Amino acid sequence: MDDKSNHTDPSNERAFGITPSRKLAEKKEFNRRELRGLSIVAKGNMIKRTDENTYLVRSSDMERWYKVSWNGKRWVCECKDHEKRAQSCKHVYAVLFLSRLPYILMANFQSGEIRCPKCNSNSTIRKGLTSSKEFASQRYMCKECKNKFTDKGESKGLKGNPLAVVATADLYFKGLSLRQIEHHMRSIYSLNVSYPTIHRWVRRIIRHMKSLEKEHSLEGGKRWHIDETEIRIDGELAYVWNALSAETKILLASEVTYGRTSADAEMVIREALKRAKAPPEEIVTDGLKSYNVALAKDYGCRIAHVSKPHFADPKNNNLVERVNGTMKTRIRGFRRLDNLSSSAELIDGLRLYYDNSRPHSSLRGKTPVEASSKLSNDDKVRN
User: What is the pTM of this model?
Assistant: First the structure.
């Protein structure tokens, strides 16, 4: 039986709030079979995955299941509508939209204009879905320059849903282990992705964020706090050095070393100066002698050194010590740090997450980068 795929189901259309007066407008966005595929997903309990290449999609009358399988190039269905037309039926569209669910959910919380990557025009139209095994991206065409593109965007080379990739990195930096994230993505989003793949995604995200950061200088403010904290790398004692802006709460540098020498202290200072728009007026540290030697160096600017301020002093190092505690909590989720190079990459990833993704109550729910951008814009307006 064909499951009546060529006929309009009014109840399905009403489920999406589509009234007869709106049908004409909706046709510009989705065709009839796409809408019916969306309806199948929205009903719930209509799709189950039997293996990596096969789904079963329940018929509208709930009496049978249709097999939708990946043939190496696209999804195909055993229903008569698909066999007759040799094009995607509502069951195939249901599978495609299911693969897009994480993207749809997350994109609605980060909604913005769809712009052409070639000419930056927002005059775009939908041109159907790509028939992909892992992630059915939405095709668009720019009405201005006729350029065709998809919403997979800059995540080329990353297998799967681009926003699911970002979600796994977010969970990782929140402290979940790779195996916990693997289980979460499978049980919540039905995404079968292995923990080694998740680890590759995280490292790719870190490299991408670092490349973007190089294009912008960070608002460092007038006072910085620097402190070091102990971690273990393959069982050996090591140190994470953090340089934090007191004004913007931006973590300017996070470096990993095996020692606490003046050269190590100098390295974190120079990294922070490299990323900041302007040097600070003063740097606050604890009583470690390495800071005295490092801050006696010539950095091409005058920086006052406030060493070991009293606990009651407003300039105390509590700010950066809290960051150290937050970072060590996150590091526990890494399970084990194997070597200095990979550890430094992950620690820098935590810094990037802290600056760009972690909201702060003291900044009214904004991330440090968001808050510093607003501060910079306010200063321009005043001037």
Answer: 0.65
